[in-house]
Write a structure and sequence with these properties.
236 residues, alpha+beta, 2 domains, 4 helices, 32% strand
């Protein structure tokens, strides 16, 4: 199981831990019926208090992904729909799972350029560029365009999980998305501290995301380092 060390993420600590454990369950690293370690042992492994861990376990239990049996322990349950904060984040470490986080490079309000597909209803959009991490390992670059008719992204409010931000700050939900996976060279804005140099051919994801509207309201491009992560889509 992956260990956790704090203050790198901006979600509450108990949510960080619940997301980490959920991703381990969904990826199969924690198998169906497996008994989790005793709470004090697990809390020590994850570098959190027992109180924080118990809050995390309650979140997971409410989702039906663990069963809590008094006097016996916490048991993993598979086959439940994942509706966690990062449920639509498809990149995982090569050995599975990993807690996602992000570092924003830039947030700008721009006219939509002609070299991106049609989406939304406005002629303007917020462009966000950021580095993606799993358990603090650099795994990808993102360029995300949100249609301006859906709201303005504010730098002092935005969080690692944009879908969570959209729901809590802008008042809409991403209900579904379409991914197109291929390979492409890293863009010319690739930061020097990224794990691969600009121009390197690597994994590439083009995503269209919808709310309840008929047209997609968000368009994004993700380049991911295939040495550190892979794209995973589980079918049930």
């Amino acid at each position: 199981m992956i260990t956790s060390n704090e203050n790198f993420y901006n979600l509450p600590k108990y949510i960080q831990i619940s997301e980490l454990l959920i991703r381990d369950i969904v990826s199969g690293r924690l198998i169906d019926g497996e008994r989790l370690p005793p709470e004090r042992v697990l809390a020590s492994t994850l570098n959190v208090t027992v109180t924080t861990l118990r809050k995390s376990l309650k979140v997971i239990a409410k989702k039906g992904m663990i069963k809590q049996i008094q006097g016996s322990g916490n048991y993993v349950c598979h086959g439940v729909k994942d509706d966690s904060v990062y449920a639509m984040f498809r990149l995982e470490l090569l050995d599975g799972g990993g807690l996602p986080s992000a570092k924003f490079i830039e947030i700008k309000q721009l006219d939509k350029p002609s070299n991106i597909p049609d989406f939304g209803t406005s002629s303007k959009a917020t462009r966000m560029r950021r580095i993606r991490y799993l358990n603090k390992t650099i795994i990808g670059l993102e360029e995300i365009w949100l249609d301006s008719d859906e709201g303005i992204v504010k730098k002092n409010q935005v969080s690692d999980s944009l879908y969570h931000y959209y729901r809590t700050r802008l008042g809409f939900w991403i209900t579904h998305a379409e991914d197109r996976v291929s390979i492409k060279p890293l863009p010319d804005w690739t930061p020097k501290d990224f794990s691969l140099p600009h121009g390197t051919i690597t994994g590439f994801i083009e995503r269209f995301s919808w709310s309840e509207k008929s047209k997609p309201i968000e368009y994004s491009k993700t380049w991911y380092d295939t040495n550190n992560a892979h794209y995973v889509q589980r079918l049930k």
